[in-house]
Amino acid sequence: MSKFVLPGDEVAVVEEYIPAEGTYEHEGIIRASVAGKLSLNEDDMTATVKPLNPPNILKPGDSVFCRITDVRASMAVCEIIASDGNERDITGDRSGTIHVSKLSSDYVQDVGKEYRPGDVIRAKVLQVKPSVQLSTQDAHYGAVKALCRKCRKPLEQDGKNLKCNACERTETRTIADDYGCVDF
Predict the structure, then answer these.
(1) Among the listed residues 34, 87, 90, 36, the one whose alpha carbon sits nearest the alpha carbon of residue 59
(2) Does residue 102 sit in helix, strand or coil?
(3) Residue 171 — φ and ψ, nearest 5°?
(4) Residue 55 has what pLDDT?
(5) Can you tell me the distance from the alpha carbon of 142 to that of 135, in angstroms, rounded to the nearest whole number?
(6) Sign of dihedral through CA atoms 57, 111, 136, 101?
(7) Coil, strand or helix: which one is 155?
(8) Dihedral, CA atoms, 101, 107, 112, 117, nearest 10 degrees?
(9) CB distance 22 to 36 below 8 Å
């Protein structure tokens, strides 16, 4: 059975348990560092408090939405704006990069043909330390919203390309399998 505790509540003593996630030790007493459910594990003798509403911390394998801020010869730089499936704001570093080798499963020579500044993309988190590295190689990842380079109107999907209905311009991007169907 788990018990709800608040920060600073005494949960155990160091002679019986080891402080773990969500707890700390002060003068021989283990106290909760977050509000949540207390778990005293008899197998490894740890005291843990699981927060009810944990922070949204990125980890490898997460799916995120990003806005491309800069395109360079070997990478696209982006700002992470949301985590797919999590309504809480992201905690920690919100900038990420996608190396040219991780943009597409096909060979990419020019990053500028795959993404442009202002594009909103879905990407997979590959690593978070020392910097956030992303990938858009799978079909579900890529641009979900893009704007025309000439008139800045939203582009509509036209087969494998994107078309601007306002100025009749056709552009290419690495697009997600649900391009145009994602709302924020």
Answers:
(1) 90
(2) helix
(3) -130, 160
(4) 80
(5) 9
(6) negative
(7) coil
(8) -50
(9) yes
